[in-house]
Design brief:
By secondary structure, the protein is an alpha/beta fold. Helices cover 37% and strands 20% of the residues. The structure holds aspartic acid (ASP).
């Protein structure tokens, strides 16, 4: 029997009742053997996340202002969960030790990691599972890149398929053996690492929504969930601003072709979104629509540009010398554009334009600001005639002027650039055309 690795996010372990839901979910499928909890998140809108309280403890301790207020809140929360569940997880002693460690100047990462650690301790006691401390197995370099030895070591630590294991998310150790956390939201990465280490047949990511949405719900009212989406599509969508789970969490499972199922702890019967290695079908021809504001575009025109050896090289060289990365670079016979995030150019706009004038002597150069980029993403786009026409008809119908059109070499997306003021209108029009029409 294959195993399933199940990661539970902050709201899924926010209080004792949520812990009970987690147990019911795990008991519902005997393959669910590897459990990766986050630190308790918000119980309601105005609540604090445990991780935020921990960072506050560190800041206050470092500023020597005392950290009693956030510490007491943390203490109450963990003791309450432990008591309410009726388990013995040694929380009072663990918290007292932690208090001393903070006083003694424990590192920021160590302090932040304790949210997942305590949560994992309680979860292991509650489930009667074996506790696996990621500091003993998950090794990362200074940039948070997971070291390859992690998988074999962790796989061995969780080798017994008849047992249930709990490994806290969010942290591991650095190359010097010190506790190190991933970036915020990093328990998703830990879950993916655990799934890969045991070669799970599925990585479940339990959260408080019933899957990923096809568009931003702040712009489109009640967008549909994605039933199935590929790793490649998710990558494009999250890069273009869709708030899916942690970007870096895809890599470990993608290499091992383990599918990911985003599920809702509060509605476990709902299918959620399945992220799969290979595309099979799509109901709407697209996976989703995502976009971002705050882009700008440098347009350069020069007659016979196509014959001038090194034109593009020289343009990009100017940007490189200023350490400016760019997003897209569409060209035509006598012109090229460079599209970049506004913050990359910051206040260097005039200098960069001047240098470009000197470097390539263009007939015309202009900087267009306040642009938004929208990506229409789908593996099926490339094989289906009329997709681009649909995009432009939708936008024209709303009177939106398209400033940029770009279809990436991956043929996974069509990217359009519009004025920032038209952004929301454009996303709504595209959604209506592809999904509800
Ligand atoms: N607790 C950490 C955070 O709040 C990690 C996670 O929940 O994924 O960022």
């Amino acid at each position: 029997m294959g195993r399933i690795a199940s990661k539970f996010g902050g709201t899924s372990v926010a209080d004792a009742n949520q812990f009970r839901k987690v147990k019911a979910i795990l008991d519902g499928d005997p393959r669910r053997r590897v459990v990766v909890p986050s630190a308790p998140g918000k119980r309601h809108k105005d609540d604090h996340k445990v991780t935020d309280l921990l960072y506050l403890c560190h800041e206050m301790a470092a500023a020597k202002t005392g950290f009693t207020t956030p510490f007491e809140q943390l203490r109450q929360r963990f003791l309450e969960i432990e008591q309410d569940l009726g388990v013995a997880a040694n929380m009072a002693a663990e918290l007292a030790t932690f208090h001393r460690e903070v006083e003694a100047g424990a590192s920021r990462d160590f302090i932040a990691s304790r949210g997942e650690y305590f949560s994992g301790r309680i979860m292991a006691a509650f489930l009667g599972a074996e506790f696996v401390d990621p500091k003993d197995y998950v090794v990362m370099d200074a940039d948070g890149n997971v070291q390859p030895q992690t998988y074999a070591a962790l796989g061995q630590a969780m080798a017994d398929e008849t047992k249930r294991y709990v490994m806290p998310g969010f942290y591991g150790r650095d190359l010097h053996g010190k506790i190190k956390t991933f970036s915020r939201g990093g328990s998703d990465i830990s879950g993916a690492i655990a799934a890969r280490a045991v070669m799970a047949e599925l990585y479940e990511n339990w959260t408080d929504v019933s899957g990923l949405l096809m568009a931003d719900p702040r712009i489109v009212q009640h967008p549909c969930h994605m039933d199935q989406v590929t790793y490649r599509e998710i990558r494009e969508l999250s890069y273009m601003g869709a708030s899916v789970f942690h970007d870096e969490a895809i890599l470990p499972v993608r290499e091992a072709k383990i599918p990911i199922n985003i599920k809702n702890t509060n509605h476990p019967q709902e299918p959620g979104t399945l992220i799969v290695p290979v595309f099979s079908e799509s109901k709407y021809k697209i996976a989703g629509i995502a976009g971002k504001k705050h882009f700008c575009m440098i347009n350069l025109e020069k007659s016979l540009m196509n014959k001038e050896v090194g034109f593009v090289y020289n343009v990009l060289g100017v940007l490189a010398r200023h350490g400016i990365s760019f997003e897209h670079c569409p060209t035509s016979i006598d012109s090229m554009s460079v599209i970049l995030e506004e913050k990359r150019l910051a206040d260097k706009g005039d200098i960069v334009l001047d240098e470009l004038r000197r470097a390539v002597n263009p007939d015309r150069i202009e900087l267009v600001e306040d642009l938004a980029l929208i990506a229409i993403v789908g593996e099926d786009l490339a094989n289906t005639p009329g997709m681009a026409a649909k995009v432009f008809t939708a936008l024209a119908g709303e009177g939106v002027n398209v400033r940029i059109i770009n279809q990436g070499a991956s043929e996974l997306n069509i990217i359009v650039g519009v004025k920032e003021d038209d952004y929301e209108k454009a996303v709504r029009a595209l959604y209506l055309t592809f999904v509800t029409a």
